# Entry
Amino acid sequence: MTENKETISVRERVCANEEKLLSPYAVKSSASKGRARAEESCFFRTEFQRDRDRIIYSKSFRRLKNKTQVFCAPEGDHYITRLTHTLDVSQIARSIARSLSLNEDLAEAIALGHDLGHTPFGHVGEKVLGILSSKGFWHNEQSLRVVDVIEKNGRGLNLTYEVRDGILEHKSSGKPATLEGEAVSLADRIAYINHDIEDALRAGIIKTEDLPQNAVKVLGNASKVRINTAIRDIYENSFGKPYVKMSDEVMSATNELRQFMFRNVYDYANKAMQDRAERMLTQMFEYFMKNVEKLPDPYFKLLENDDKERVVCDYLSGMTDRYAISVFEGLFIPETFAIGGVR
# Structure
């Protein structure tokens, strides 16, 4: 008779491999600081893998496909949306984490969740809600609120400390507690600069020769080359080190491209939608502040624990571009404002 042996879970095997293979500076799945509400471990998945899956299956993640990155409701199928940006960040963050022997699952989970709280109409929407709200509005803080409070009808996703920290601290001004969080912060910058350049070229706003030549000389003359240059530079400067960063030369060139994009692309795109987005969000904000009972049930329920200004911002920031336009039209544009009822 063969001796019975306790079954080793897939999760335990993965955690054992992490101990052998990952950098001493990586966050091991077994060493996570855990969740606000304790849960039984999964047989197959580590805690960070579970977080990734929860984000992917969340409603707020699905809505990213219809949220503006830079160009609002563009004509053409290949412009970047908030969802495709998120996938770009995830791919770059995983590449950085893999090259540095960091926890790839943790980096992926942070990347997939980093923009869940972004508004409709891109950064214009964020700016408008920041003005309307007496407490201000920042998309990284809203992303954390989405996973902590708003998802699952007010129960939140109950993510691990490390993923929550990475989501909150992903902006360039943030200070992530993990190297995986640092990798996502850099991946975010690398992704949006390069895919926004491609969108601006496609839209005819800029030409390739308009790009700052010093930055092109350092980083490369095509997006895939620039992304590869950045990832390799991070690897060469960070492997085996307790940080994730670029060299001064590559960071300077990256910042030069970023400044070029703000001057020549972002300001242009923002002006095109600024007035419309501001008018729609402002009128809807004022309407729901006076008529909170008109909020959808999941948001109305949040009023039990939060003030109405916070909850109205939750509702508006969660809208996709097309849904925001639809709600605005339903509230403020008469059904029959032309002969024959044509809207």
